[in-house]
Design a protein that fits this description.
Two copies of one chain form a homodimer. Chain A has about 230 residues and is an alpha+beta fold. Chain A has two domains: about 150 residues, Jelly Rolls, CATH 2.60.120.10; about 80 residues, Arc Repressor Mutant, subunit A. Chain A is built from seven helices and ten strands. In chain A, strands 3, 4, 5, 6 and 7 form a five-stranded antiparallel β-sheet that branches. In chain A, strands 8-10-9 form a three-stranded antiparallel β-sheet. In chain A, a hairpin with a 2-residue loop joins strand 9 and strand 10. In chain A, helix 2 crosses helix 3. The longest helix of chain A has 26 residues. The first copy, chain A, is elongated, with a radius of gyration of 19 Å. At the A-B interface, helix 2 and helix 3 of A face helix 2 and helix 3 of B. The structure holds a DNA duplex (30 and 30 nucleotides).
Chain lengths: ~230, ~230
DNA sequence: CGCGGCTTTGATGTTCATCAAGTAAAGTGG
DNA sequence: CCACTTTACTTGATGAACATCAAAGCCGCG
C-alpha cells in the first residue's frame, strides 16, 4: 500500500537525511522494498529486553521510552526520546539480543528493516557506514551524558532537569502534556514517586510551574534552570 | 625505532585482532607508518575534556579512568578500564571535541593514529568499519549498563560492586592493589568519601575483605556478591 | 623532622525512602 | 450512564540512609 508503481515513498522520507543520506536512488528503492512500517498505540512495546534482534528499527513519529527491569523487578528508565533517534538502538551491532525494552509513550510509527540488509549496506557503502556510526555515537553520548547529569544532582535538581528536558528537547514548548506518570519520572531520575510528587507540588506552590492534571506549564523557566544547575 | 626495515611491528600486535582484523598486510603496514606510541606515567592525562580530537587512541597496556568535571568542580568517574577498550572513545565520530577526560591510573602505553587515517580506512574497508562499530557499541553498552547497575544500588551494594569489578574485570584476582584513592571510588559510585571508607571498614570488620593499605584481598566473594546483588 | 595529603572514625543534621491514609481520576461491566 | 473497581496521585509522619563537619592518625616526601 505504500508503493505507487516503481516510485518508492522512502525517497521523500525525512529520515533519508538522517541516516540514509549516502544512498543513491537505487539503494533507496531497494531499502524501501525491505522495509516495513508499524503503527503502535500508546503503551505498546516495540522491543522486549532479551528478545532476539532481527530488525533495524527507527522511530518515524511518536515518543518512546527506553528502559530495563532491575533484578528486584522495578523499572529503570534509561531515556525518553523523539523520532530520529534510533529505537532498537545501540545493541544492534554489539549484541544478539536487546539489552533494553522500548515502548511507546504516545502513538508511534516505527520503520523496520531487516538487520541483514542494513549490515550488507554498511559493508558496501562507506558513507552510509560513517553516517550510521556517527548517529549511533551521538545517541550513546547523549544517553551517557544525561545519566551523568542526573546522577550528580539532588532530588529537586533532577525534577527540574526532566521538566526542562521535556520543555526543550521533547516538546519545544513551555506548555505540554506530561507523557509519563509521576512514577515513570521517578523511575527515570532514580527517586521515589512520593518525593517526585512532593517536589512538583513545591514547584507549583512557588509559582515555578502550573499544573492542570497531566498538563504542565513552565511559568518561570529561569528559576527552573537555576534549580537544575545548582541542585 | 619501532621499525625494522620494512617489517612493521604492528603486524604482530595483539590489538590487530581486536579492531584491525580486517586489514591486509599492506594496510597494516600503512597503519604502522601513521601510528605513534606514547608512554604515560601514572597520573598523566591522555585526553582533556574539551580538547580537539585529532587522533584515534587506544590503550595498549595499563589502566585508565574516564571522567568529567561537574559544573560545581568535582570529578565524576564514568568508568575504569583496561586495554582493548578504546581510550579516546565514543565521541570520535560524533563530536569534534572530547566530552570526557582520560588519565592513567597505572603506567600505560597508548597507540595513536591520525583520526583522518582511520576515517579513510573506515570508508574504504567495510569489514574494518563493521568491526569498529561493533567494538564501540560494546563499550558504550558496557558503560551504560555499569552506570545503571550502580544507580540502582545503595551504598554498600555499590562498594561491593566496585570491589567485584576490580576483582573480576580488572585484575582477575582476589588480591589486588587498589589503583584508585578512596575518594576516586566515591567519585565513581557517586557517594561521599567518608561513607566509602566506612563501608570498607565494615566489610573488613565482617571478614569479607582484608585490607593492607592499598592492597585488598577479597576473603568472602560469595558474601560480597550477595551484598552487591541485594544492596 | 615536619608538612601536606590521604585516610579513618565519631557526631550531627539533612535528604530522602517508606508507610499509611486519603482523594481524585480513569477504566470496567452492568 | 452509573456504580464499582482499580490505578494514579497527593500529603503527612516517621525513620533510615547518607552527607557533612571536625578531629585525629597515618604515611610519604622534601
Amino acid at each position: 500500500m505504500n508503493e505507487k508503481k516503481g516510485v518508492c515513498i522512502c525517497e521523500g522520507c525525512e529520515f533519508r537525511d538522517v541516516v540514509f543520506s549516502h544512498l543513491d536512488d537505487n539503494s533507496i528503492q531497494d531499502l524501501c522494498n525491505h522495509k516495513e512500517e508499524q503503527s503502535l498505540s500508546k503503551g505498546e512495546v516495540i522491543n522486549h529486553e532479551g528478545e532476539k534482534i532481527s530488525n533495524f528499527k527507527y522511530l518515524k513519529s511518536g515518543l518512546v521510552k527506553l528502559y530495563r527491569r532491575t533484578p528486584s523487578g522495578d523499572e529503570q528508565i534509561i531515556t525518553i526520546t523523539r523520532p530520529f533517534e534510533f529505537v532498537s538502538n545501540m545493541s544492534i551491532f554489539s549484541e544478539e539480543r536487546y539489552q533494553y525494552s522500548v515502548s511507546a509513550l504516545e502513538d508511534s510509527v516505527v520503520c523496520m528493516v531487516k538487520l541483514e540488509f542494513i549490515k550488507e549496506l554498511f559493508l558496501k557503502n562507506g558513507g552510509f557506514a560513517m553516517g550510521l556510526l556517527s548517529k549511533i555515537s551521538v545517541i550513546n553520548d547523549k544517553i551517557i551524558g544525561q545519566t551523568l547529569d542526573i546522577r550528580q544532582k539532588n532530588l529537586v535538581g533532577r525534577v527540574a532537569y526532566v521538566l526542562l528536558y521535556f520543555t526543550r528537547e521533547i516538546y519545544n514548548s513551555r506548555v505540554f502534556d506530561l507523557p509519563v506518570s509521576r512514577k515513570e519520572i521517578a523511575d527515570y531520575i532514580g527517586m521515589s514517586t512520593a518525593n517526585v510528587i512532593r517536589t512538583l507540588s513545591d514547584f507549583k506552590r512557588e509559582g515555578i510551574i502550573r499544573v492542570f492534571g497531566k498538563t504542565i506549564e513552565v511559568a518561570d523557566i529561569e528559576k527552573l534552570e537555576n534549580i537544575s544547575r545548582h541542585g
